[in-house]
């Protein structure tokens, strides 16, 4: 690593290798790890975004995992909220950092902190973006959450930590949730602006009693013309369905 480069610690949408490739083409993933003593949360009310917050007074440590020789990341790793936050370490250039500063809305939305971590047996400084605490807890939007999930899949993280973080953030926000009628998860959220009305996601479509995952399955397996919701062509999920169908076509 050159004298001007830094180690950047990613935990949210910048786990997404494709996104980081576009945003910071000179960034290099150097390994996956667990950020202990912190928890993943979402702030920003509706369409909230990820942050990490300390949960104990213990020193911040990183448990390293040897990177894959092809991708630079570990093929498998899982960690819940109680166990810490799964993270991906990047080596970034000054130009990468400038791009990240713009993306993270520095200093209004996020601030930068430097933590000393134990990486490969040596104390190493890593830069991390943490959201300013003036923003309330809330539920992340669908598209943003999907970007993070793609990142989790690409580096082999267990997405259970995301579900736990969403539940904890919504609980802290004062919103309520009810069970999905299909999978029985407790992930159908009350609209923060319309108490008593529940939704599969952060969009404004009424009368959903299924969670986001089941909603995606419904939209992607149902002919829009015959959808029993009766909202075509004004349904905002119609554009999302086209997005998923295009992804499936690209993968085939």
Average of per-residue pLDDT values:
75
How many individual β-strands?
12
Could you tell me the CATH topology label of the largest domain: Hypothetical upf0131 protein ytfp
Total domain count: 2
Low-pLDDT residue spans: 57-82
Under the CATH scheme, which class of the largest domain?
A: Alpha Beta
Written as H for each helix and E for each strand, in order along the chain, the element string is EHEEEEEHEEEHHEEEHH
Strand pairing plus helix content: what structural class?
A: alpha+beta
Radius of gyration: 19 Å
Describe the biggest sheet?
4 strands, antiparallel
Count of discrete alpha- or pi-helical segments spanning 4 or more residues: 6
Per CATH, the superfamily of the largest domain is Gamma-glutamyl cyclotransferase-like
Shape: globular
CATH architecture of the largest domain: Roll
Oligomer: single chain
Describe the structure.
With 252 residues, this protein is of the alpha+beta class. The chain folds into two domains: 6-139, Roll (Hypothetical upf0131 protein ytfp), CATH 3.10.490.10; 176-252, no CATH class. Helix content is 28%, strand content 29%. The chain is built from six helices and twelve strands. The chain has helices spanning 17-23, 94-103, 142-155, 160-173, 212-221, 237-251; strands at 6-10, 28-35, 38-43, 46-54, 62-64, 85-92, 110-119, 122-131, 139-140, 177-178, 188-191, 194-199. Strands 1-6-2-5 form a four-stranded antiparallel β-sheet. Strands 3-4-9 form a three-stranded mixed β-sheet. Strands 10-11-12 form a three-stranded antiparallel β-sheet, with no helix packed on it. The radius of gyration is 19 Å and the shape is globular. The relative contact order is 0.16.
